Amino acid sequence: MTIHQMECFLEAAKTLNFTEAASRLYISQQGLSRQIASLEKELELRLFDRTTRDVRLTRSGELLLWRWKDIPKEISDSVDMAREEGERAKSRINVAVVGMNGIIEKAGNLLADYMAVDPDTEFEISEFTSIKDMTTGNPDLMMTVSFLPTHEQLREKYGVLCIGKLPLYYVVSRKNPLADKEEVSIEDFRGETMLCLYKNFFAGAEMHLFELLSKQEHVLQKARFYENVNSLELALIANEGIHISFKEFYHNYGDRLKLFPLPDAENQVSASVLMVWRKENEKRFENFIKYLKKLYN
């Protein structure tokens, strides 16, 4: 059964005149009759009672007319909607945001502020937890966090803009004896397990940062990696190791976790919140990039 067969039946059912129905559809009367005959054969139903004097619908035909009468308009409307969505998709900016609490909130506020300035711009936000997610989604921009000052190497192929700094902390469970201290040093963590997030994407950035601070002395002997924030946070609360991150990372650090400035209160270091994009695609969303640079340069 085809849409054309359905259109032929509906026009003939409404007019009860094959000549007039064929004229409205810009086909010959013979062509209309062939389409209806083919439909009746396929459905194994007689839809019209035809005599030399008039044309009438059978009960089966009346039922189909009742249930099918709005289908052509619905098809036409859905095609128009699909075309409209296709045009919108060409201008929509896809932003992939690393799945961390504070970063997702920052991204939402930033994009909402820009849409207030430029209401014609539409964003689509997705979360990612690994580099595989990035290559699959092929976003226009990526909003992520760099724990190490290594993002400069991205500038050869990508546009990179730092849009924020997040002070970093050593984080331990309140169950850990270290939580009773006022201050800690690298040496205090000897023998602890480092809990790290997203092995594929960050490549153990927390561990690398810790090793830099400890001047490669390998104070930590063990590391465990987690594929999502919730699993890592639960392990941390259960005192299965230590972590390095920023306050906004955690759902509820107040009663369960103790944070120490890294490496200390006087020399605390920060993670960089980065917006990264492919330079070859920049023309399509250059106004948004200009807006970011005006805010953060």
TrEMBL record:
Swiss-Prot/TrEMBL keywords: DNA-binding, Transcription, Transcription regulation
Keyword Glycoprotein: no
One Pfam family linked to the record: HTH_1
Top-level taxon in the UniProt lineage: Bacteria
InterPro entries from the UniProt entry: LysR_HTH_N, LysR_subst-bd, WH-like_DNA-bd_sf, WH_DNA-bd_sf
Domain HTH lysR-type: 1-58
Keyword Iron-sulfur carried by entry: no
Cellular component, GO annotation: protein-DNA complex
Example GO molecular function: DNA-binding transcription factor activity
Family membership noted in the UniProt record: Belongs to the LysR transcriptional regulatory family.
Name used for this protein in its record: HTH lysR-type domain-containing protein
The organism of origin for this protein: [Clostridium] citroniae WAL-19142
Upper taxonomic lineage: Bacteria, Bacillati, Bacillota, Clostridia, Lachnospirales
